[in-house]
């Protein structure tokens, strides 16, 4: 193998740049030519592909976002789109691919590999942490810390005004951010997509808590089955029959996707990036390089996207016990 390509795709995550840097520098160290594909699968289809050098990734290990840019491509979901992408890679003589992204990225990579056979290794880049085959994904730690910093501030004002805050964090299909923010932020309740939210029991507990606590923080993952934080707040207010203005909603939104990656994310990103290139050179394909129990492991894309990564049940119990 002499030439490889690397791209970032899907929702960006802090640490993608550190991962890209590791891919580019490892490739060059191992005497490969490396090409950056801009805007994920969109750029592959458009032929937006450029050679990268050691200096192309200088001074980015600490930066959030992705210098290669990212996109969610509809066209790549079609055979015609993938054919164009293949032809562009073939023009550059690409023999291996590193795909940095989440489940959508790996779903595309798996289909592309099955159709065109270019060996591909993925790196888990998403704030959601919802990828099987790695204990943590690149960007998750930073996103949790960003959300926590905001929750700490909200707690100050919630306590000063005796208010109940519903704070919505990201996680369309996964509650990892919600759970860690709940534990770290001392939330009274956490609502996540993995468990059914019973608002009647929340209201009952809230009534009890109000005997001893004057303010509460409720963390809602955006994909919760009871609705968005706005909707849940209105339902709880109605059930409590409380018409005061002491119920507030804050949606943290995309602030969670930006910012300088934490040390944990930079280290994880660097390890996965190097492991992806070394994996390709060792003949790995159609799989992701992740880290579990401190060790680099390669997991088939099939499992990364197909197997469930459950939230740790102890964590929900922890939040319940510590919220009294
Ligand atoms: O997958 C990462 C993520 O940030 C999710 O938590 C969130 O639901 C989604 O992306 C938002 O996507 P977009 O930035 O395209 O609106």
Automatic annotation (TrEMBL):
This protein's name: ATP-dependent 6-phosphofructokinase
GO molecular function: 6-phosphofructokinase activity
Similarity comment: Belongs to the phosphofructokinase type A (PFKA) family. ATP-dependent PFK group I subfamily. Prokaryotic clade 'B1' sub-subfamily.
Keyword Transferase carried by entry: yes
Phosphofructokinase domain mapped to chain residues: 3-279
Activity-regulation annotation: Allosterically activated by ADP and other diphosphonucleosides, and allosterically inhibited by phosphoenolpyruvate.
Residues engaged in binding ADP: 21-25, 155, 186-188, 211, 213-215
Pfam families associated with the record: PFK
NCBIfam families per record: PFKA_ATP, PRK03202.1
Lineage, top ranks: Bacteria, Pseudomonadati, Bacteroidota, Cytophagia, Cytophagales
Enzyme Commission code(s) on record: 2.7.1.11
Chain positions recorded as ATP binding sites: 11, 72-73, 102-105
PANTHER family per the UniProt record, alphabetical: ATP-DEPENDENT 6-PHOSPHOFRUCTOKINASE (PTHR13697:SF4), PHOSPHOFRUCTOKINASE (PTHR13697)
Cited function: Catalyzes the phosphorylation of D-fructose 6-phosphate to fructose 1,6-bisphosphate by ATP, the first committing step of glycolysis.
Binding-site positions, Mg(2+): 103
Reactions it catalyzes: beta-D-fructose 6-phosphate + ATP = beta-D-fructose 1,6-bisphosphate + ADP + H(+)
Gene3D superfamilies recorded: 3.40.50.450, Phosphofructokinase domain (3.40.50.460)
InterPro entries in alphabetical order: ATP_PFK, ATP_PFK_prok-type, PFKA_ATP_prok, Phosphofructokinase_CS, Phosphofructokinase_dom, PKF_sf
Quaternary structure and interacting proteins, as annotated: Homotetramer.
Pathway: Carbohydrate degradation; glycolysis; D-glyceraldehyde 3-phosphate and glycerone phosphate from D-glucose: step 3/4
List of residues binding substrate: 126-128, 163, 170-172, 222, 248, 254-257
Places the protein is found: Cytoplasm
């Amino acid at each position: 193998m002499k030439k490889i390509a690397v791209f970032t795709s899907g929702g960006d995550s802090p640490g993608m740049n550190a991962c890209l840097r590791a891919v580019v520098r490892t490739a060059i160290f191992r005497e490969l030519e490396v090409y950056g594909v801009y805007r994920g699968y969109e750029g592959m289809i458009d032929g937006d592909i450029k050679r990268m050098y050691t200096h192309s990734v200088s001074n980015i290990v600490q930066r959030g976002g992705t210098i290669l840019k990212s996109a969610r491509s509809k066209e790549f979901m079609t055979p015609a789109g993938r054919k164009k992408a293949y032809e562009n890679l073939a023009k550059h003589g690409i023999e291996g691919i590193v795909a940095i992204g989440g489940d959508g990225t790996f779903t595309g990579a798996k289909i592309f590999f099955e159709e065109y056979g270019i060996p591909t290794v993925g790196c888990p880049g998403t704030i959601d942490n919802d990828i099987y085959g790695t204990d943590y994904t690149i960007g998750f730690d930073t996103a949790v810390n960003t959300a926590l910093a905001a929750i700490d501030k909200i707690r100050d004002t919630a306590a000063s005004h005796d208010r109940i805050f519903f704070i919505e964090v990201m996680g369309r299909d996964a509650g990892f951010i919600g759970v860690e923010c709940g534990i770290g932020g001392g939330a009274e309740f956490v609502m996540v997509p993995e468990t059914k939210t019973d608002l009647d029991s929340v209201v009952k507990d809230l009534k009890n808590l109000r005997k001893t606590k004057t303010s509460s923080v409720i963390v809602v993952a955006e994909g919760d089955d009871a609705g968005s934080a706005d909707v849940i707040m209105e339902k709880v207010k109605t059930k409590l029959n409380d018409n005061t203005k002491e119920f507030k909603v804050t949606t943290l939104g995309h602030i969670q996707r930006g910012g300088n990656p934490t040390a944990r994310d930079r280290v994880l990103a660097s390890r996965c990036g190097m492991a992806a290139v070394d994996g390709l050179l060792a003949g790995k394909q159609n799989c992701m390089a992740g880290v579990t129990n401190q060790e680099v492991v390669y997991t088939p894309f099939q499992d990364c996207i197909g197997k469930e990564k459950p939230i740790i049940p102890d964590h929900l119990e922890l939040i319940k016990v510590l919220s009294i």
